[in-house]
Amino acid sequence: MAAAWIVVLVTLVRGLAVAGSVPTSKPITTGKGCHIDRYKSLPPQELASFKKARDALEESFKLKDWNCTSPVFPRNWDLRLLQVRERPVALEAELALTLEVLEATADNDTALGDVLDQPLHTLHHVLSQLRACVQPQPTAGPRPRGRLHHWLHRLQEAPKKESPGCLKASVTFNLFRLLVRDLHCVASGDLLRTSTPPEST
C-alpha cells in the first residue's frame, strides 16, 4: 500500500510541475524535454492568425497619436550577433515583453482580445518550450555583458519609460521578426546541442 501511495504522489508532483503549478525560474532539463526545434517555422494557419492579429493591432493605433522616446527594440536587434548561449536569453526577454503588452491590450479591448486569443496561446507555448531548453543561470555567476546586457536593460526599462501606445506599436512592428527570424535562429539546432550536458566517459 505504501509503495502505491508513493507512486501516486510522484505522479501528482510531476503533473503539477508540467502544468506550471510549481513555480520554477528556469528548469534544469536535458535535450529530452526540449522541443523548441518544432518552431523552426510556424504552420501557415498559425502565421495567418498572427497576421490577422497584427493587422487588427495596426488598425487600432492608426488613428491614435503615439511616439517613443527611444526605440524599444534596438535598431541593430539581431540574435545572430549574440553568442549561441546568449540567444535564448534574449529571445525569452523578447517573448516576455511581447506577451505582457499583448495581454494588456487584450484585457483592455474585447474585440482585439478575440483576435489575439490564439496568438497569445501560441506565444505562451513557445515560451514554455524555450524555458524547458535553457539551463538555469547561477545566481552568483557572471551577469550578462556587452550587447546582451544593453538589450535586456532596454526591454526591462521600456514598460517604465514608454507609453502603452509606444509599447503596443513596437511589439506589433516587431512581431514577425520575432516569429520568423529570432525564433528560427534559436530553434535551428544550436540551442539543442548546447543544452544537453555531455555524456561522461
From TrEMBL:
Entry keywords, A to Z: Antiviral defense, Cytokine, Secreted, Signal
GO BP terms: cell surface receptor signaling pathway via JAK-STAT; defense response to virus; innate immune response; positive regulation of immune response
Alphabetical list of Pfam families matching this protein: IL28A (PF15177)
Gene Ontology molecular functions: cytokine activity
CC annotations in GO: extracellular space
Keyword Repeat: no
InterPro entries to which the protein is assigned, alphabetical: IFN-lambda_sf, INF_lambda
Subcellular location(s) of the protein: Secreted
Signal sequence region: 1-15
Primary subcellular site in the record, as a coarse category: secreted
Domain of life: Eukaryota
Keyword Transmembrane helix listed: no
Similarity comment text for this entry: Belongs to the lambda interferon family.
UniProt protein name: Interferon lambda 1
Native organism: Aotus nancymaae
